[in-house]
From TrEMBL:
Endonuclease that specifically degrades the RNA of RNA-DNA hybrids. It comes from Vibrio renipiscarius. Belongs to the RNase H family. This is Ribonuclease H. It catalyses: Endonucleolytic cleavage to 5'-phosphomonoester.
Amino acid sequence: MATKYYVVWKGREPGIFTTWAQCQAQVDKFAGARFKSYPTLAEAEAAFGGKSNISASSSPAKGAKSAASKWTKKPKAAALSQQQIIEMAFDIKIFTDGACEPNPGEAGTGLALYHNNQLSELWYGLYQAMGTNNTAELNGLHQAFLIAQEKSAQGLSVAIYCDSMYSIQCITQWASGWEKKGWVRAGGEIKNLELIQQMYALYQQIKSKITIHHVNGHVGIEGNELADRMSIIAIESQETSLSLYRESSNIEEILASRRG
């Protein structure tokens, strides 16, 4: 039986998996889960937008199963909880999210900004009639960088919380290697290249002044949930600019709206 590679864009842990059981563990009963199988690792990585989070085992003996069939996921760090985030000593906490319905399809971005653990601003927009979930997530992280640049210039400490491991890894890990190779990658096209180049240049300016954390989506982290609702409002309103949300200041009311 041929090996399949399962891409999970939206799930408990985004990534590329080599068995249906691993994929199912990420998407089963996960609202808004987005995933798809591919026949080759190259196609899976191209669809995911970067290298996989799986590593090859040692070469098999003659007649044994291929190394690909033995690949396993790298251990992951424990997920952050709402309480852990509250206890982090940052003046500004920015949560980002992106949504796409379907993927590719209508896309939008949302952000939630907290000052001293109090919600201060909600942002929505950057609508694309034909976008992708990855682009929407990158747009959110990009806007968080711009806000972080402004806030850090005011002497405030800033943390960014993003549920897209793809977006985080693009800027903090992969972009450095891509730049050294002339912005090319062995696996093929670098998707969202122009946006990634802009973000990487900005990241180089502010990386010593900010902290970036990955959070799991839809696990009850208030800022992440609010950013998610904003991304849906961006799609529904088709707002192309990034706009300050003024419709309601009632957090419970906003959380009760449709989620991505």
